[in-house]
Amino acid sequence: MKLRFTKMHGLGNDFVVIDATRLALELTPARVRAIADRHFGVGCDQLLVVEPATQAGVDFRYRIFNADGGEVEQCGNGARCFVRYVHDKGLTKQREIRVETRSGIITLCLRTDGLVTVDMGVPELAPAKVPFLSASDAVVQPLQVGALTLAITALSMGNPHAVQVVADVDGAAVAEQGPLIECHARFPARVNAGFMQVVGPHEVRLRVFERGAGETLACGTGACAAVVAGMLRGLLQSPVRVHTRGGELEIAWAGVGTPVLMTGPAVTVFEGEMELE
Ligand SMILES: N[C@@H](CCC[C@H](N)C(=O)O)C(=O)O
């Protein structure tokens, strides 16, 4: 079966995007892994699928698959690419759309300056909602990783995040700690591991070891989670400029119980056709 796709990225977090609005597409984990494979497939951190909405008052269904084949709840950089894609492909003329994801409805806005602002929803702080196994709801919690006790903030941006503050993000043990945190027994759904260096009250540097994809050049939900964690810890004030290895995002948050707003670019790289077995 031949399948048309578009290659996109948000700050180097790269995606294969497929229009399944008029196509019944069976995406098994093995098929997703084959598409995402950087040597034998197209290559991407995540596969994004555009589907018709299944409920009233929503424009599309937005599905997200990690490179490891697992379907997940949310992807921030992907959300910005999603609105650019449906607009560029003529699937909608609206610059503001509402899309359903596994973790609820989010609103995406393609601005006239080309940047995209996404209302990523209200962060979940209760450990059970992350999910994070903990009897305490303290903002900073100890997490035993090998011989180290890390101080993490666990929260959900629709998907699970564990954020720690580091002195120097370039020297952070992302490759060593990332896989151990991702699969830590206290995160039953696994977790995205963020390493944040605070530069000032409105500026951080961030690296994220993503669940199901490894370290990516940027993680949109990771940037939102880092800013929420930093604000809850009293280290940051909104808005915050987040420097990732792939570029910059601006994150705004008015505080507990309010949604996080993420603004950044969305880029189309090329179009193609692949053989899907
Ligand atoms: N790159 C994404 C997050 C993608 C999903 C994540 N790896 C997970 O498993 O939750 C982003 O930009 O938010």
Structure description:
It is a single chain. A hairpin with a 5-residue loop joins strand 7 and strand 8. The protein is built from four helices and 18 strands. The protein folds into two domains: 129 residues, Diaminopimelate Epimerase, Chain A, domain 1 (Roll); 132 residues, Diaminopimelate Epimerase, Chain A, domain 1. With 277 residues, it is of the alpha+beta class. The model has no long low-confidence stretch (mean pLDDT 97). It is globular and about 50 Å long. The protein has an 18-stranded mixed sheet that branches. The ligand N[C@@H](CCC[C@H](N)C(=O)O)C(=O)O binds next to helix 2 and helix 4. Keywords: Amino-acid biosynthesis, Cytoplasm, Isomerase, Lysine biosynthesis. GO terms for molecular function: diaminopimelate epimerase activity. Pathway: Amino-acid biosynthesis; L-lysine biosynthesis via DAP pathway; DL-2,6-diaminopimelate from LL-2,6-diaminopimelate: step 1/1. Its EC number is 5.1.1.7.
In terms of topology, how is this protein built?
Blueprint: E1 2-10, E2 13-19, H1 29-36, E3 46-52, E4 60-66, E5 71-72, H2 76-88, E6 96-101, E7 104-110, E8 116-119, E9 141-145, E10 148-156, E11 160-165, H3 174-182, E12 192-200, E13 203-210, E14 214-216, H4 220-232, E15 240-244, E16 247-253, E17 260-264, E18 267-275
Subunit structure: Homodimer.
Protein name: Diaminopimelate epimerase
Main location: cytoplasm
